[in-house]
Target: 3-methyl-2-oxobutanoate hydroxymethyltransferase
Amino acid sequence: MLEKKMSITDLQAKKGVEKITAITAYDALMAEIFDAEVDVILVGDSLKMSFGGENETLGASMEEMLYHTKAVCRGVKHSFVLADMPFGSYATQKLALKNALRFYKNTAADAIKLEVDIQKLPIVRALCEEGIAVVAHIGLKPQFARFDGGFKVKGKSEKEAQELLECALAMQEAGVCSVLIEGVKSQVAEKITKALSVPTIGIGAGNACDGQILVWSDAFGFFSAFKPKFVRTYCDGRAMLKEAIRAYAKDVKSLQFPNENESY
Ligand code: KIV
Model:
């Protein structure tokens, strides 16, 4: 359990010392439950898929991400809050600066995350120079799934592995505080982790990364549309809630709820 608010310095100091733990949250209710139990809480645009019923993340808007980030920040006292910049919100340097500043001025997020390849280097550099803490998301980038023709594991070829390593190093040089590696061959993620001085957080990238993140509805068995190979389910949340909702409906139908103590 965290006893004080996790800062960037605290997070970076974990590299090579202890693993970083991270999970998504999209509202104050869940954020408050997860707070202090994990180092990082990500307000991910995965909310479009896990809660919005969409099959991609591209529809997330700045307004939605700001709304969810504000809600999460209200529930968090200790964990480091990371917020996703939605698709299109950092298409140009000007737009990226404008929208990143909106996150900083309107929410208490500790850092923002951008899905990047080497072409985004000038944008990432400009944000870092402005004093905005940036996490670079590399590898499988869900915001590029339509362009890529699906959610494809990266780093399978020598060329792709080399490009990922060079991108991670360039992002570090530009000033990012951490690199999130998604859907990348374990050996490639390991090589990147060893080459960087900033911590890496992995999802579907093996256990050599400096930390791990999961989408909460996957981790706790609420999302049933599909289960990626990298997900470990820690409880059957869906079955638990189904049982509870059925019990409630049964009590109402059978006049067992509310009883006298539950009435005015
Ligand atoms: O949006 C999200 O939840 C993410 C994680 C998959 C890392 O980016």
The chain is about 40% helix and 15% strand. The beta strands are 20-24, 40-43, 80-84, 111-115, 134-139, 178-182, 200-203, 211-214.
